[in-house]
Write a structure and sequence with these properties.
By secondary structure, the protein is an alpha/beta fold. It is built from six helices and seven strands.
Length: 233
Amino acid sequence: MMTAFVTGGGKGLGKGFVDYLLDRGYVVFSGERQPQNTPQRENLHVIPLDLSSDTSIAQSFELVSVQTDHLDFLVNNAGVNKDSATNNHKEKVTLLQDLDRESLLNMISINTIAPLLMVKTYLPLLMKAEKSFVVNVSSCRASYHDEIPNTSANYGYRASKTALNMMTFCSLTDLPTNIKTYAVHPGSVKTDMNPVGTDMPYDQAQKILAIAQNWKDEFNGKFLRYDGTLYPL
């Protein structure tokens, strides 16, 4: 049975990943901060997960590892933006005169460090699959060649996603050859974080995972668009 773990699987793009993978017959583990809000479905296991807590990450692994002996996909989807990271005080991470160290570090902790710690923690299960994939959801904001207009410096979000791309690249040094990884710009996905988005979560999840289904060695460790093309740095 094919298996996948999706962080932030309760809504938005994460739910798109969960729904698509379930439709394809996967057993899906959905890491969520509020697991009680997700309806039960066949082959869906909702796992409590707070990415700001190393203890929570470790406990999630304990729950998953007794239910499967391998993972085919780890989708690091969960993240925070300028509003959700600051309780709607976005100036703390977007405006030079108002920058706040704690808010910036919190954003980097969730968007950059947590995905890498998820890979570290779930490595034993990823190693057991014949070929497994780590998908790190990044953003066009991580590039100097941003394709969506941006009206503020957006320091925290852009820096955290740029660092995530580098973490993805650096992980090639340590990952065994059966584990492939890529960071990906998901498009303008319509979510609570991006209510003006034009792309539906399910559709974008399907496109992002199609990269793995049509894998090329040159994708490994790279920053890609959802259509599988290289995104310029």
